[in-house]
Write a structure and sequence with these properties.
The structure is a single chain. By secondary structure, this protein is of the alpha/beta class. The chain has a single domain, classed as Spore Coat Polysaccharide Biosynthesis Protein SpsA, Chain A, CATH 3.90.550.10. 39% of the residues lie in helices and 20% in strands. The strands form two sheets. The chain has a seven-stranded mixed beta sheet with strand order 3-2-1-4-7-5-8, sandwiched between helices. The mean pLDDT is 91.
């Protein structure tokens, strides 16, 4: 591992040609202006649009940018895992391509590593969280119901496992990824479940968050899969 890299940013991307360019520029500009030693790894999850070639063309203008391609769509969990396993940073953050949680919120997460924590996760569910654009009421309700099952079956004490903004120490990320098997949207729960079993300290941190109405999560189809994934997580681990 390259200790010269302080922070690795992993971005799973599926058909993100419309916003990936602005996302990468915003991340790069912020990290550069704040003196971070960083790399950005985009994992193209079998996109059918121009995502891969667009990111590839940007490698010349954005320092530390790398692109990995899944030959077919494998899922967000698979892509995050692949990004982590190829990353070299002391800390590893995965972020959604739409920056629903702005990159500036990384400061809130990084500060907890100096206080003995191994993992810091963004949360929309804490009293201090600032939801600047809400999801439709039925999605928020579904999220709360899902979290009740998560608390009962997997990771009690964590109020929001699904916010796409989580940072891990290098050691924690690699140890968890060795054991991670869920490839799609429930992977967050599995990662945190494994982390707790391994004894890693997790800090849930309130962040700013903006809903993106173009969510790729199907409330019915993916929601049912995620419920059954909770049972799989308990059986597998």
């Amino acid at each position: 591992m390259d200790e010269d890299i302080f922070l690795s940013i992993i971005i799973p991307a599926y058909n993100e040609e419309r916003r990936i360019k602005s996302t990468l520029k915003r991340i790069s500009n912020y990290l550069t202006s704040n003196g971070y030693r960083y790399e950005i790894i985009v994992v193209d999850d079998g996109s059918t649009d121009d995502t891969f070639s667009l990111v590839k063309r940007m490698k010349g203008e954005i320092k530390g940018l790398r692109i990995i391609k899944n030959m077919k769509n494998k899922g967000k969990g698979f892509s995050v895992k692949r990004g982590f396993l190829s990353a070299r940073g002391r800390y590893m953050l995965f972020s959604d391509a739409d920056l629903s949680t702005p990159i500036e919120e990384i400061e809130k997460l990084i500060s907890w590593f100096n206080k003995g924590y191994d993992i810091a996760i963004g949360s929309r569910a804490l009293k201090e969280s600032h939801i600047q654009i809400h999801q439709p009421w039925y999605r928020e309700l579904a999220g709360r119901i899902f979290n009740l099952f998560v608390q009962a079956m997997a990771v009690p004490g964590i109020k929001d496992t699904q916010c796409g903004f989580k940072c891990f120490s290098q050691k924690a990320a690699l140890e968890i990824c060795k054991r991670q098997r869920i490839e799609r949207f429930s992977f967050d729960v599995e990662m945190l479940y494994i982390a707790k079993k391994l004894g890693y300290k997790i800090k849930e941190v309130p962040v700013r968050w903006f809903n993106n109405p173009q969510s790729k999560v199907s409330l019915l189809k993916d929601g049912l899969k995620m419920f059954f994934d909770l049972i799989r997580i308990r059986l597998m681990h």
